Structure formats: C-alpha cells, structure tokens
Amino acid sequence: EAGLIPCIGSFPELEEWVAEAGIAKAALPTALHFDTGMNRLGFGTLEKLDMERLENRLETLEIKLVMSHLACADVEGHPLNAVQLERFRAVAARFPKARKSLANSAGVLLGGEYCFDLVRLAARLGHRRRPRRLRRSRRTRRRTRFDGPSDRRCH
Prior knowledge:
It is a single chain. Helix 3 links the parallel strand 4 and strand 5. It is built from 5 helices and 5 strands, in the order βαββαβαβαα. The longest helix is centred in the first third of the chain and has 14 residues, at 11-24. Residues 140-144 and 146-155 have low confidence and may be disordered. The two termini are 13 Å apart. The chain is an alpha/beta fold.
C-alpha cells in the first residue's frame, strides 16, 4: 500500500523475500545492498560464486535499486573512495534496469561520478553526525531546497 520496498543485503533476507514472491506469484520490487568496502552490511562484490548464487535467485524479483555505502566519503582524497566507486560500477553494470545509489551527504561532495541516480542526504538534512566538510562548507549551508510534486514517493 505504501509503496515501500525492502533493501536486501544478505542471503537469508533474500531467501525470505524470494519465498514471499512465490506466495504472491509476482515479481516483487526489491532493492539490493552491496558491500563495496565499508565491511558492515550488504552482499559482497568480490566473491564470484556469491554473485552467481545471487543472480540465480533474482528471477522472481524486480530489482528497482542497487546501492552501497561509502566508507570514507567525508575524507577527501581517501583512496578507498575510488576503489568503492569502481567496485560499485562493476556491480551496478549487472543490473542495467535498476536505479543506482552510492553517494551519501559527504559523497555528493566527491563529484558527480559518485551520484548516479539517487543520493542519500541524511547528514545534510540534520542527521546528528554531519561530516566535518558539510559543517564547514558554505556551499551547503542554507541552500538546500527540495522541489517536486508533494505526492512523489521515494523508491
């Protein structure tokens, strides 16, 4: 009813959602979360067998979004940012119809190549842990503006 979709980041979550798709007899909308270097949550990107295992389970799902988190976006010039960007591009290429999301609030400041289709601006919107670069940046102060239809849903 609300138009929400789950963000799946592990095989147990995936198996549960695939089972729901079987019950519904429909391809259920799904977001996939990949770990590209944060070492916290998400499917791994480097294990070829896991990628094959994942792709074999996706035929009953409609992949709407592929996402990851940047581990060091608030550290300008950190080498892991470029590594994660390349890992994410490789994963995202496997899902050409899905929207892509890599950048968080600090990631937006790394440049357009990190932004893809969707950015997540929690820190810029008042999240308690704002990256230092955002706290000090005049470019981001008092200039946040959101335009769009009021009935627009986030997918």
